[in-house]
Amino acid sequence: MITRAPIYPTELHSRRVRLSTGPLAAAEARDQVRAAIRAWDVPVDPDVAILLTSELVTNAIKHEAGETITLFITCTYGHLRVDVHDTSRFFPVLLDASGDEEFGRGLCLVDSLADKWGCDLTPDGKAVYFTLGFRPAAAPGTGGHRPRSVASPRPGMASRGRPAVTRPYGTLLRFPRKSPRCDGPQG
Questions:
Q1: CATH of 13-137, one of 3.30.1490.190, 3.30.450.40, 3.30.565.10, 2.60.120.200
Q2: Mind listing the pLDDT tens digit for each residue in 109-167?
Q3: 8 A C-beta contact, residue 55 and residue 62
Q4: Roughly how many angstroms between the first and final C-alpha of the chain, as a whole number?
Q5: 3-state SS string over 71-102?
Q6: Where exactly are the structural domains of the chain?
Q7: pLDDT > 50? residue 7
Q8: Would you state the pLDDT for residue 92?
Q9: pTM of the full structure
Q10: CA-based torsion, 173, 131, 47, 146: positive or negative
Q11: CA separation for the pair 144, 166 (Å, rounded)
């Protein structure tokens, strides 16, 4: 029996949006990501993409001194990537938030749900990004639901088959990706 692999878009789709750092920026960013996923027919979980976008935009607004941030959405070669650019030179830090703390869980969500995340220096500040790989096509009889990736059952492997490394104070790092602190100065 010959089976065919699903065909995913190989051409580059991109969208760039400038957002004011006001209270409506996260909602506008969510709308932009949702619209891009629909328009480009991207096979990723839109709820996860929207949640992670909201976290990155909220962090950028909270730590941004300027009046605007820039949202880049790109889709090509099997993944969706969302970048949030701001003028801050300080990199995000992955924290171990305790159960009763009000803040500090956003990057933990990004770390656990994104296939890859990190940040890069830009001439004007930094860009924090995440990527989501395309999900496999829905199997017949599943009601259109696509399976989510599950943690690897092999010892020493973190979710999606990446090696697990534990720091002495208990924070789990996943490789390969840039360090959670993005290899830069901390503020």
A1: 3.30.565.10
A2: 899 999 999 999 999 999 999 999 998 764 444 444 444 443 333 333 344 444 333 33
A3: no
A4: 58
A5: EEEEEECCEEEEEEEECCCCCCCCCCCCCCCC
A6: 13-137
A7: yes
A8: 85
A9: 0.69
A10: negative
A11: 37
